[in-house]
């Protein structure tokens, strides 16, 4: 077993110590944790071995969502630390979102000792079986002297393009047994490049004169690849679009904009009517969020041809640059920035909030959007805001927004994070506020308090339901009203309530200039 310099000759390590040292050697220096009894040797190792930043979450969904947000901004994985199968189960929803975002995460899960597991103690579960559907790699360590090598393999698997969750399960005796070995980092698995034939074929599709849609996802939504995509669009009249939900989009003044497939199936089908060719760049074929009676689940015409330029695991930026060159597409200037209209006044509407965000968003902010129904105008209405990155809920499992903000703030501490958070989904992981306070993270949380699951009211209409009081009561979270200012205060986060656009603008501007977290409850 190859070891690195962090393990001196004759030094005795247990499995947990070899895990921590190997993670650090592989560049994993942040751990989001909610440990339990089975993980105490890992916790003790973190105390003895310097270099790992440990961030505590009070619920496993906060831990897994924070690891997702961290990696989206850091472009490298964090580790999680979860307690046995049930702890993993509590974190699965945001691991599902991370899987959809293709986020690299080293997912460490403690488990029963190998000799204790056959006795069926209360926490015994099919931990590996639960981890596998959200993971690109899953392994249960068997011996202390293998833990380091397992950890290095987990990091390599998580970082392999396009990225994913690598789940390493550690029985407690494997952690406390001596004989641990520190493994050297494994070589990264670089993203393969698209073949010359694929580039030439895509150029022929684009030269055909047929109305063509380029669907961009993943790393194709960073600043340089977006510029190349616009070169292609300008040279061929192709249209550019992204899936409705994306892990990270580079946006704002001085950058090229790209629209998203609308959430509403009817609106999406209207937007994409007439398309004859769909070319995928790291994206799956577009699909509506849900099925509805008598309506197509495809937002593009049924008879459109679907082609693939690049699969998600391929080098998307290189593919777009080479395709633009093959088309002889010259560079195109970024459209002139339109000065924001200024701070909105009066009643709170989606458009008014977008206008104020566009005027006041800090330079290089990270926007985390889980605005669900009310935020329909936020993305299109902030195209001329200061340069920023836009992170979204990717897998549809609500409760990602506040944890994503935690992770992003840890990853880029020199940038303000703005979380646009619906109140209903915010309650799924409200414990994130405590972690923001504990870590003094620079996060401005804007809670959109309409006191209902408004998105589900639309879904009831979409399936032709005629709801009565019982149905409507299940979608109402205003009896009693949630008091987000008091909830935040109870977790150490200062907050205030805004009831109109003037008070929102004042609070938003103030919050972004101060250190640490601040919550604005925006009453809708």
Automatic annotation (TrEMBL):
Gene Ontology BP, a term: small molecule metabolic process
Keyword Cytoplasm listed: no
InterPro entries: THDP-binding, Thiamin_PyroP_enz_TPP-bd_dom, TPP_enz, TPP_enzyme_TPP-bd
Keywords: Thiamine pyrophosphate
GO function terms (MF aspect): acetolactate synthase activity; flavin adenine dinucleotide binding; thiamine pyrophosphate binding
Domain Thiamine pyrophosphate enzyme N-terminal TPP-binding: residue ranges: 14-118
Domain Thiamine pyrophosphate enzyme TPP-binding: 387-521
Matching Pfam families: TPP_enzyme_C (PF02775), TPP_enzyme_N (PF02776)
Family: Belongs to the TPP enzyme family.
Name the record gives this protein: Acetolactate synthase large subunit
